[in-house]
Specification:
The protein has four helices and eleven strands; from the N terminus they run βααββββββααββββ. The protein is mostly beta strands. Strands 1, 2, 3, 4, 5, 6, 7, 8, 9, 10 and 11 form an eleven-stranded antiparallel beta sheet that branches. The longest helix is centred in the first third of the chain and has 18 residues.
Length: 254
């Protein structure tokens, strides 16, 4: 298996496990995002920046948005895949990464995402400038302006489909807020099993607006915005505040 591993680009091999897949045998969206985080962490560790090194600053990397596309053909439980990431560019407050998931021979790309990262002070819960020691090892170019990612559209329905959830202890990650991948479960679950078993996302835009803390009551709303039911908009609301928004394009599973 041909893997690229250098300062700017990093790939790892991964075999899909049963707990990463839904009852169709394909990886869930939340697990796909978790895999992207996994390869990003592996990249940092390979350059000498492990979790302990980053936490010693009292700060942490936080993802604020994703924008990307997925292939209608996805791997299944037990398949060997390649997870990859590239440190694209950065400026004082933002860093841009791209992610991908390929088959074991690099002949089919299942997923390609871009993500914006910020550096957050864990006590003050506010954005900080990125420490040079934690960004220059990636040898990505410094740019004043980074490319803008897509922004989800707003729900316009007066009474969108709505479902409530309670944030559990195990939804909280090491950064003391709901893990980014968990939002995808809340955002997509109201679509229901019948829809999710027979449709697959091919385009995704998600933006994280505000943190969700332990014990919060979360309302997930969605709206299908075309006559074919293949375009959906979603929002996570806590106490009247939009905490995450998403927009997806779907394709029927044949």
């Amino acid at each position: 298996m041909d893997l690229q591993q250098d300062k700017q680009v990093y790939e790892i091999a991964h075999r899909l496990t049963y707990y990463e897949c839904d009852d169709t045998g394909h990886p869930t969206m939340s697990m796909l995002l978790s895999m992207m985080t996994m390869v990003s962490d592996a990249h940092s560790i390979a350059l000498g920046m492990d979790t302990a090194t980053i936490q010693a600053t009292g700060e942490a990397w936080v993802i604020t948005e994703y924008d990307g596309r997925l292939s209608p053909e996805q791997p299944t439980f037990g398949d060997q895949v390649i997870l990859g990431t590239r440190a694209v560019a950065y400026n004082r407050f933002f860093a841009l990464r791209e992610f991908w998931m390929d088959d074991a021979n690099h002949t089919h790309r299942y997923l390609h995402l871009r993500a914006t990262f910020v550096f957050m002070n864990l006590k003050k819960r506010r954005l900080m400038s990125i420490p040079p020691a934690l960004i220059t090892p990636f040898e990505s170019p410094e740019e004043k302006r980074l490319p803008r990612l897509g922004r989800p559209g707003s729900i316009t329905a007066e009474a969108p489909v709505s479902q409530q959830y309670r944030v559990r202890y195990f939804d909280i990650d090491v950064n003391h807020h709901v893990n980014n991948a968990r939002y995808l479960d809340w955002l997509l679950d109201p679509l229901g099993g019948e829809f999710l078993r027979h449709h697959r996302p091919v385009k995704l835009v998600i933006k994280y607006e505000h943190e969700v803390q332990a014990g919060a009551s979360v309302t997930s709303q969605y709206q299908l915005v075309d006559d074919n039911g293949l375009h959906s908009r979603h929002v996570i609301v806590v106490d009247g505040q939009d905490c995450a928004t998403a927009e997806l394009t779907w394709t029927p599973i044949k």
